[in-house]
Amino acid sequence: MVFDYANRLKLLPPYLFAEIEEKVERKRKEGVDIIDFGIGDPDLPTPRPIVEFIKRELDDPGNHRYPSSAGEADTRKAIAQWYKERFKVDVDPNGEVAILIGSKEGLANICRAFVNPGEKVLAPDPAYPVYAQGGALLTDAVPVRFPLLPERGFLPDMESLPTDARMVYLNYPNNPTGAVCDEEFLLGASRWCIETDTILCYDNAYSEMTFDDYIAPSALQVAQGDGTIEFGSMSKTFNMTGYRIGYAVGDADLISGLKKVKSQIDSGAPKFLQRAVTMALGAYEGGERPQMVKDNIAVYQRRRNVLVTGLRRLGFKVDPPKGTFYLWLKVDGPSLEFAERLLSAGVVVTPGIGFGRNGEGYVRMATTQPVERIEEALERMAKVL
Ligand SMILES: Cc1ncc(COP(=O)(O)O)c(C=O)c1O
Question: How far is the CA of 266 from the centre of ligand 1 (A)?
Answer without folding.
Answer: 19
